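Closing statement on the 2M8 sub-project.
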Amino acid sequence: MTPSKPLVDRAVGVLRRNDTGRFTKPGPCVYPFQWNWDSAFVAIGLARIDPERGRAEVRSLLSGSWMDGMVPHMVFHPQDVDYAPGPELWGSAEYAGAPDVATSGITQPPVLATAVRALHEAAPDRAFLDEVLRAIDAWHRWLHRVRSLDDSGLVAILHPWESADNAPRFDAALARVELGCALSLARSDRRHLDAAERPTDLEYRRYLAIVEQLRRCGFRPASLGETPFAYVDLCFNAVLAVAESDLAWLFGQIGEDGKRARAASARLHAALAECWDDDAAAYRQRDLHGDEVISDTVADLFPLYAGVPDERQARRLLDECLWSPDRFGPSPESPWAVTTVSKASPAFDSRRYWRGPVWINVNWFLVRGLERCGLVAEADELRRLTLRLVETSGFAEYYHPSTGEPLGSDDFSWSAALTLDLMS
Ligand code: 2M8
């Protein structure tokens, strides 16, 4: 593909403007701190234009690592900014093993190893690998140690903020979370964005109630069954499967065999394959306190990203779900894909955050997945559609699937960064 110069320049401009010098803000006003997978996506984009700056992004994220290995979902580098709920929600300084910088007490999908691989492929730097691989390995080990459910290798998320916030697949599990939370419901997002594009106050009260309960056990529950919210998210697990395989590859680059990571990836791969539902042509999700279900959200398709489906399954997943005009794919009335929730689902909402709009990171994962499963022409088609969307509507946080209207934050870093990767 021939890169269109202005789009590249515009994407680079967004990353430069959101660069605080130490880390890249996800968005100019709404998201002024450092988020975990946002920084990984940013580093994937920076690999294409400025690998040295990409390495700095990784370093600053890892400066928030906890002693036990967790890389938190947010790092609150000291700044005077308008953001709530901020560091006081988490009170990380009160907990043994927290870093000097204030952070959240939960994590996010581990895209980081994949970002480090992208940086290394763009500009090999052995010293950098020596510097960061142990910390990433410690994070992955932490996930298996602290978040494993059973021998399957699948891990649980303990908060919707560890994946796609208000996605309908979390509704039933979230509804079981008891309210009665003492924490204040201050929300800076409402000062910048339309309420119809964000989670509701009731969802926020439950998010805070989970944090309040997690704080009581120092964010490390003795048993996952006793936590207010625990969910086997296929997006998170597919990301981990790929990250483990990328980490094994990176260890190979420094002459180590990466055996643990390779085995973990293979185990996750096999466990994800077991989630296939042949009637639905998609994968089943599991709430720890409920039954396995087809959630009708795009996460049901995420094992594709890890190359899990066989040829027949990948074709069916594509035809019956991902590219189906009535489900997640483009249709004459709704030409922008992939929707984050099936259009056939009663929960579908074309404006509200993770409940329907199109997200660039989701499309990026799916392009990689289609390629991994040998559906190269289909990957190209999704890549073209995604680039047309950013060309038409700019680097929004998310997009209305019928009109392409930009929604959420403007000048969104990961939309710009992943555009750079999709164009290369
Ligand atoms: C969103 O999450 C934050 C809370 O962590 C929010 O809702 O305000 C999510 O889209 C999350 O995936 C993302 O990392 C973060 C920053 O872009 O925003």
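The longest helix spans residues 126-147. With this model delivered, the sub-project is considered complete and its resources will be redirected to Aim 3.
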